[in-house]
Structure formats: C-alpha cells, structure tokens
Design a protein that fits this description.
Length: 192
C-alpha cells in the first residue's frame, strides 16, 4: 500500500512539473497551460539626407568652427557626387565652371558659349536644357544649378575673400539643397 501511494505521489509530482507547477498546487489541464509569448520587434532605420557622409562632415566641421574646411570639403564631395550622379569621370584638375560645362556637354546637351563666359546665368536659373525638361533630366539640371550657386555664394567667398564671413548653417543648408536634387539612395544607400 505504501508503495502504491508513493508511486502515485511521484506520478502527481511529474504531472505537476510537466504542467508547469512546482510542488502542490492546483492542477492545470492541457488547454490551461501558460502560453509562451514570443515578441518579434521590427526595427526600421530611417535614412535622411542629413545621414549622408558629406553633410555629416560639413555639420561636424561647422560645429568645430572650421568654416573654411566645411566649404572646401563640401565642394569636393559635391563635385565627386555630381560626377557619379551623371555617370561621368572628368578627372581632378578642371576649373569649377569648366567642369560644369563639360558635364553638360557629356550629357549631350547643345549649349551656347555664353555659359562658359557667364557662369552667373547658370546659378541664377537660366534654363540650360530647355523648357521641355522632365523627370530625371530636370533634377540633374537643378542639381547643377544648385552646385553653381554653392560655388558662387559659399565656396568662392570662403576661399578667396578675407572680409566675407560665411555662416556655417548656410553651408549645410546649401549642401542640403544640392543633394535634394540628387538620388542619394543610388549614391549612398545601395546596399540597404
């Protein structure tokens, strides 16, 4: 008798353990078990235009009060990215406005000679490609116009003028304007 009761107690303890209970307690049936909750969390990283390396560097330089460095590195980075955006490699030693002119020529655009003589018309918004531009062509034209504007309003005064104080926030703002017209996903976030 004692052996049967100890066997029954052992069976009850094993059942309690299998049901998730320890020691004496109320019995749970098969459907009353505690459910294990598995939580899946999805993290979404939002990339913005301010996450691209040229703007991160420009903001860092402005924060460190290195305005001239921010202007020079910003110009260098934009120049490289515009060439990548247009799928053109022009090399390193071209004057700035000649570089813009060659990018447009390489894009098979029929340009007047006044653009090489008068770069201000480029920055002020004179249509280079024509009034019937659409989509990607118009975005490329606007990126070049913003780049020319950056050169004349930020880069040239910062590098060649001793009197002109350039506001650091203005550098970041103009660089942001340029990149707003470029496909930054294709330039910087290809793998993601």
């Amino acid at each position: 008798m004692e052996k049967e009761s100890s066997d029954q107690e052992a069976i009850k303890q094993i059942q309690n353990i299998l049901n998730g209970e320890k020691g004496e307690g109320k019995k749970r049936g098969f459907f009353n078990r505690k459910k294990k909750v598995v939580r899946e969390e999805t993290q979404i990283r939002v990339k913005t235009i301010l996450d691209i390396p040229p703007l991160v560097n420009a903001r860092r330089n402005v924060g460190n009060k290195e305005i001239l460095k921010a202007a020079m590195e910003g110009k260098r980075d934009v120049q490289k990215d515009i060439e990548r955006y247009f799928n053109i490699n022009l090399g390193g030693n071209l004057p700035n406005m000649e570089r813009i002119y060659k990018i447009l020529k390489e894009s098979n655009k029929d340009l007047s000679e006044e653009i090489t003589v008068d770069p201000v018309s480029l920055a002020l918004g004179t249509s280079l490609i024509g009034t019937k531009t659409t989509g990607d062509t118009q975005m490329k034209e606007m990126a070049l116009k913003k780049y020319a504007s950056f050169l004349m309003e930020i880069y040239f005064p910062a590098v060649y003028s001793q009197d002109n104080e350039i506001d650091g926030e203005r550098i970041v703002s103009q660089l942001t304007d340029i990149y707003n017209y470029m496909d930054i996903k294709r330039l910087y976030f290809v793998d993601e």
